[in-house]
Please model this.
Amino acid sequence: MKKENLKIAFGAHPSKEDRRNIKDPHLALGVPYPSIYETDISGMTGLLKLRYQKLLGVCVACAITTYVEYLYWKKTGKYTRLSVAFLYLVTKKLIDGNTEEGTSLHSGIKAAMKYGICTESTFPTNYDLIHTQFIRQPIPPEAYTEAINYTIGGYVSVPIDRSLFAAAIFKYGMLLTRMEVGSTWFTPSWLPKDIFPLKKPTVVISGHGIDHHEYDLTKEKSKFGFLNWWSVGWGNKGTGEHLMEDYEPTEAWALTLDSVMQYQDNSPVISGSIWKRLFDIFRSAGTLKAFIK
Model:
């Protein structure tokens, strides 16, 4: 199956490890969340009709732009269509520093946080271009000026866990995730059966950036739903689903308009002050000798 016959593209590279990234401590402590939940995006009418990446590897920019649109719609009550082209080009030119097709979720997040995203009307996204043409587009100065109005305040990484995923979707509305994609994502005309829930690919074609926005934890296996960028003709009007126990994302991020401390060391090493507190607790409880043994 040749890529040009699929009429879609990928482009989500794995994010590099960065110890400065932090996790939301409240998720691990147990954020109360319902067993079934779907984020309301009713005010973002026609969203998936606007996101059809075709043969461009801009899935990460599609996913982040949609997430940021959702955050501002939730805050202001007004839907503003933002430019996928702007975020992708800024990420490639000012974060990645290369013209390779596709980018990582982390690079796109950093671009959205530092530079923001301008509106689609200021810098329209032409999905009919090939990548070599797309990457050479000049960004108008007014796009940079406007983009500052649509930045994110922070982000947190979310461990791959059904409970933490559900808590994060309920708290943040969406989760920006990377899935490994194989042939199971496609529905040829000769295949009469439904492809959902999607199965883990035996042969990985590429990585793909999407937005998880719903879940159902009432069954033995948890089901998570997401928004995709392959037109409303794909899946269930442009959305898909998978069972977490059978098919996990490789990474996940929650975005917020609020400020988040981004440079906290997230390593599992226990600090000296914590060791001292533990020492004092054991000593006061009279169990220090047993603990040492």
Notes: The domain at 3-267 is CATH 3.90.70.10 (Cathepsin B; Chain A).
